[in-house]
Amino acid sequence: MPEIDARKLADLIHRPIITEKATLLLENNQYTFEVVPKATKPEIKAAIEMLFDVKVVSVNTHKPPRKTRRVGKFMGHRPSFKRAIVTLASGDSITLFPEV
Predict the structure, then answer these.
(1) Which of 10, 35, 36, 76 has the most neighbouring CB atoms within 10 Å?
(2) What is the pTM of this model?
(3) Is 47 exposed, middle or buried (0-12, 13-18, 19+ CB in 10 A)?
(4) Which domains, and CATH codes, for the chain?
(5) Using CA atoms, how far apart are residues 82 and 98, in angstroms rounded to an integer?
(6) What element of type H or E holds 85?
(7) Can you tell me whether residue 47 is helix, strand or coil?
(8) Residue 2 scores a pLDDT above 80
(9) pLDDT digits (tens, 9 = 90+) for 22-72
(10) Cα gap 28→37, rounded to integer Å
């Protein structure tokens, strides 16, 4: 397996996804992130462990189909994205809503 470059890991994670289904997964210590479409599971695991200093148990990815959009007579597609559901070890957590 090729070595993962630590300098590029922070660019793999775009943002956390906060939806109703994602907040229900927080009870199971699972967090949902939008990631680069070409990111692999080992790269996502290394990026989450480096950025948030937690232990990742598993990574599940989902790449939904692109949606079609029309602008006048021209047909196009919305940009594709990849969703990663990360399961953390018990006792670890990520603060998505920091206290201000």
Answers:
(1) 35
(2) 0.86
(3) buried
(4) 9-88 (3.30.70.330)
(5) 25
(6) strand 82-88
(7) helix
(8) no
(9) 999 999 999 999 999 999 999 999 999 999 999 999 999 999 999 999 999
(10) 25
